[in-house]
From TrEMBL, chain A:
Topology in membrane: Multi-pass membrane protein
The species this protein was found in: Streptomyces beijiangensis
CDD domains listed in its UniProt record: TM_PBP2 (cd06261)
Source taxon at top rank: Bacteria
Lineage: Bacteria, Bacillati, Actinomycetota, Actinomycetes, Kitasatosporales
Domain ABC transmembrane type-1: 106-315
One family name in Pfam for this protein: BPD_transp_1_N
Name of the featured protein: ABC transporter permease
Assigned GO CC terms: plasma membrane
Bilayer-crossing regions: 9-30, 110-130, 142-166, 186-205, 245-274, 294-318
UniProt keyword terms in alphabetical order: Cell membrane, Membrane, Transmembrane, Transmembrane helix, Transport
From TrEMBL, chain B:
Region (Disordered): 1-21
GO process terms (BP): transmembrane transport
PROSITE patterns: ABC_TM1 (PS50928)
Full protein name: ABC transporter permease
InterPro entries: BP-dependent_transpt_permease, MetI-like, MetI-like_sf, OppC_N
Keywords from the named record: Cell membrane, Membrane, Transmembrane, Transmembrane helix, Transport
Transmembrane segments: 50-71, 122-148, 169-191, 203-222, 257-288, 308-329
Topology within the bilayer: Multi-pass membrane protein
Length: 325, 342
């Protein structure tokens, strides 16, 4: 198990290194003048000169990259100002290092992603399980209709409708606000219910469909027949034997979907006017703030890669064969 | 995967209901006519009513997109005129004076809050823009995906390994963030940030970023299929008869993966339409005043609490479009490969 984890961690580090290198290269080497892209909408030549110096654009690209990467761990002293330990660069639009902004924003995105994922896993897998149990009956068709519809709506369309109906008219749920876990944990939860619910809708169909077909497939396996022959109740066989077999594949599908989950969280944030990494990255593009964009990209990739390790570990718990692989 | 010869004489294949040769009174089926897998699939597809309805809907959308200039000419309006402001149809908050978003005989789908443009023409031109971009993205990513998958599956060994790791790497990029962040960078490659960027350049950049992260899934699927196909006897036979690699790929392998390509295409297109609309919605895709499906939601989002009508038509249109495409994808898959159970 330890070797398994060590290998995954090493792999993740390599992937992150490559992603950061490619992104850095594309951002700060390929464009003819990265300084101009980093300096906000209204900038004068003096500023551009300062930024060029600050980014170290006169240095060779590998030195630049090394400075950037080592700065994350050791901090940097930039001409524009001091940038303490997790230094992901210096934003010229904000006139400050980018890390405080990101530290301020990422809890909202993370909460939304986790809340949304928990919701769609519950609803999607639940729908799939009931459909498989009630195969061919009314609920089966009902569930597949629901999931088809869920697959076809967009967050930016149902988001406003949900706010209008559930919040403005029926006063059932809070219309969504940023989280503040340290000071107001309860309102952090209530503020995330509606956004998580709306975000989860687009994922329902995939999980209910996959769960249903996986369960149907599992129920025709040999070990299920053996369990039935032993005299175990149908429900026990279904929930303990078949579900466990199907779980491994569901977890794999979830791992592939992680980047889509983050994407859904970004659109949901903008729809609900939340202040997370997604709205931050859009704002960074609109204000031409390349250093901030670079940092958000790297943080996003780190979140996905780390979640993947968690999922791999989970997978190893579900499927013992994976621990040896 | 059935090879052409197998499929043509497949005995279990049901005789289509409408086939006259089968229903000639009293006489058994006279002769077995060989049919290509394509013909068989078409026969199966024609019997699928839902599939036909969805295909017609999809064709309808495509026609509307193609004929947008013609339709708007007949309708007598264009998507750039600020009718609401010019004719005084908006109140001081920018909301249409008439109920239901200003729908009347002149403006069928109402007018846009604030600017007062005509929603009907905005929508048909918006569909045109989004559909065009998504079509380009899908075509390029499927073509490149197939090519890479073919090479990977056929070449085996080192090529397979390195291309596979590369596609893994591309898969671990956070997609949405990548699209958002790289569009301006790609535009900056062609035009200085100081200058005004032409609209077509933004469209090209959008196609490019979405393609860069769009080819991997097709590539993987094709690779997996090729890996199993290349061990089959007919490939061995072709190789023994001295066929070149290129000929084997073109004449033996490609015809056997057409169905996969077609199904992937129908599945990817709606995903790409909504992805493009999503980017425009976020404000980093197509920029106003160019009409775009996603931009309609963006301007609607500011006014939905006073008037949801404006968002209603683009939203419903998009739901119908995606439902039709998804069901069409299922029907196409059923028609091509009837063994798959849904």
């Amino acid at each position: 198990m330890l070797r398994f984890l060590a290998r995954r961690l090493l792999g993740a580090a390599v992937i992150l290194l490559l992603i950061s290198a490619i992104t850095y290269f594309l951002f700060f080497f390929l464009p003819s003048d990265p300084a101009l892209l980093s300096c906000g909408k209204n900038c004068d030549p003096q500023n551009v000169a300062l930024i060029r110096k600050n980014l170290g654009l006169d240095l060779p690209i590998w030195t630049q990259y090394w400075n950037f990467m080592s700065g994350i761990f050791t901090g940097r002293h930039l001409p524009a100002g001091n940038c303490p330990a997790p230094c992901f660069g210096y934003s010229f639009a904000d006139q400050q290092p980018v890390w405080p902004t990101i530290a301020d924003r990422y809890p909202t995105t993370l909460t939304l992603a986790v809340g949304g994922a928990a919701t769609f896993l519950t609803v999607g897998v639940g729908l799939g399980l009931i459909s498989a149990w009630q195969q061919g009956k009314f609920f089966d068709r009902f569930a597949s209709a629901i999931s088809l519809l869920g697959n076809s709506v967009q967050i930016y369309f149902i988001g406003p409708i949900a706010i209008l109906v559930l919040s403005t008219n029926l006063h059932l749920l809070n219309r969504g606000h940023d989280v503040d876990w340290a000071n107001a944990p309860l309102s952090s939860v209530t503020g995330m219910i509606l956004p998580s619910l709306v975000m989860s809708v687009i994922f329902w169909s995939n999980y209910s469909r996959q769960t249903r077909s996986l369960m149907v497939e599992q129920m025709s396996e040999e070990h299920i027949r053996a369990a039935r022959a032993k005299g175990l109740s149908e429900r026990y066989v279904f929930m303990r034997y078949a579900l466990r077999g199907a779980m491994a594949s569901i977890v794999t599908i979830f791992g592939v979907d992680l980047s889509a989950v983050l994407g859904g969280a970004i659109i949901t944030e903008v729809t609900f006017g939340l202040h997370g990494l997604g709205s931050l990255s859009v704002q960074a593009v609109l204000r031409s703030d390349l250093p901030l964009e670079m940092a958000v990209m790297l943080i996003g990739a780190t979140i996905i890669v780390c979640s993947n390790i968690v999922i791999d570990t989970l997978y190893a718990f579900i499927d013992p064969r994976m621990r040896l692989a | 995967m059935t090879s052409p010869t197998q499929a043509a004489t497949e005995p279990s294949d049901p005789v289509p209901a409408g086939d006259p040769s089968a229903t000639v009174a009293g006489t058994p089926v006279a002769e077995l006519v060989g049919r290509s897998p394509g013909q068989l699939a078409w026969v199966r597809f024609k019997r699928d009513r839902v599939g036909i309805a969805c295909a017609l809907t999809v064709i309808g959308f495509i026609l509307v997109a193609l004929a947008a200039p013609l339709i708007s000419k007949l309708y007598g309006k264009d998507p750039y005129q600020l009718y609401g402001q010019d004719r005084g149809l908006l109140n001081s908050y920018g909301i249409p004076l008439k109920p239901n978003g200003g729908i009347d005989s002149d403006f069928w789908f109402g007018i846009e809050p604030n600017l007062g443009r005509d929603v009907f023409t905005l929508l048909i031109y918006g569909i045109r823009t989004s559909l065009f971009i998504a079509l380009a993205v899908t075509l390029v990513s499927v073509a490149v995906g197939v090519l890479i998958g073919l090479v990977q599956g056929y070449m085996h060994g080192k090529v397979d390994y390195f291309v596979g790791r590369f596609s893994d790497l591309m898969l671990s990029f956070p997609q949405q963030l990548f699209f958002i962040a790289f569009t301006p960078v790609i535009i900056a490659l062609f035009v200085s940030p100081r200058d005004e960027e032409p609209t077509y350049l933004r469209v090209v950049a959008l196609i490019l970023v979405q393609f860069l992260l769009g080819w991997m899934s097709v590539g993987r699927l094709v690779r997996a299929q090729i890996l199993s196909l290349r061990e089959r006897e007919f490939i061995e036979a072709a190789r023994l008869s001295g066929a070149s690699n290129w000929r084997i790929i073109r004449k033996e392998l490609l015809p056997n993966i057409w169905s996969t390509i077609l199904v992937q295409f129908t599945l990817l297109l709606p995903v790409n339409v909504t992805a493009e609309a999503g980017l425009s919605y976020l404000g980093v895709g197509v920029l106003p005043p160019t009409p775009d499906w996603g931009l309609l939601f963006q301007s609607g989002a500011n006014y939905f609490e006073s008037d949801i009508t404006f968002m209603f038509f683009p939203g419903i249109a998009m739901v119908i479009f995606v439902v039709a495409f998804n069901l069409l994808g299922d029907s196409v898959r059923d028609a091509i490969d009837p063994k798959t159970v849904r």
